[in-house]
Amino acid sequence: MITPLPRTAIVATLAIISALLTTSVSAQDTPAPYDCAKISVSGNSYDISALKQTYKVTGQPKTEHPYKVQYDYVVNPCQAINVPENEVKLHCVSGAWVCRDKKVFFDESEPKTVSLLPIAGTAPAAENVPAREVAPLVALADKIENVAEAPWTLTLKGGLIDGQDQSAVITFICDTAATDAAVSPTLTGSLNGVTTFQWKSKSACAVHTMLPVQEGMSGFSVFLTVFFSFAFIYLVLGAVYNHQVYGAKGFDLIPHKDFWRDFPSLVVDVVHHVWDSVTGRARGGGYVSV
């Protein structure tokens, strides 16, 4: 029969396989460039390019001693807010995707804007402040009752107010009855620098005929393909060798049969070895060099 593989080789092989798995998973976590006409979430594709415009969201007045204040927002889910040259003082700085307009009621008249600050958007580096990017991120949201499709969220970052990082999280809900031209997002809350909106729109529905094109196999898929290909070749060639050289039949055709019988205990030994290395504890027993 073929000589069994040494225990040290098995440990090294399993360690390499573990490293390859970790590397492959990490590579899959890299986000694709954001395009609001080609959004991919959990196998479905979405196109919200019809919402590529400026929307105004009016907040509810509330008391902040000694005045009553109101927070309004301007939102564009696809790009930075377009600011007309003659209205620069009425909008956030250039590069904002979500702008917060803080208004104060000084008397019974209409509220007046006291600050315009970006909740999300890009900004170059300033003194003691690093450059910030909007970094759009999409993800599937929790299912809502009486909704045919599961909602999905769009997170926009990059804002900075009073030294605290800001972000806007928009939950899109598929509503085929909603008219995109007339429906705007609804403010649902603001806490610890995270402002949340809910947006019912027919554009939020999945476009199943526009599933993303598979550009190639992921690193993990390539690893599995190579692994099982080598495993198949190993079994076939090993069985042929054992039959031709030793006249083996039945289970004796399996190459390194004794090794595979002991493989579970070898895996346990490797796990124990890794655990002891991480925790810094030494196990009793083992081999002693003479």
Automatic annotation (TrEMBL):
It is a single-pass type I membrane protein; Single-pass membrane protein. Residues 34-207 form the MRH domain. The chain crosses the membrane at residues 220-241. SUPFAM superfamilies: Mannose 6-phosphate receptor domain (SSF50911). PANTHER family: AUTOPHAGY-RELATED PROTEIN 27, MANNOSE-6-PHOSPHATE RECEPTOR FAMILY MEMBER. Belongs to the ATG27 family. This is Autophagy-related protein 27. It comes from Linnemannia gamsii. The lineage of its organism: Eukaryota, Fungi, Fungi incertae sedis, Mucoromycota, Mortierellomycotina.
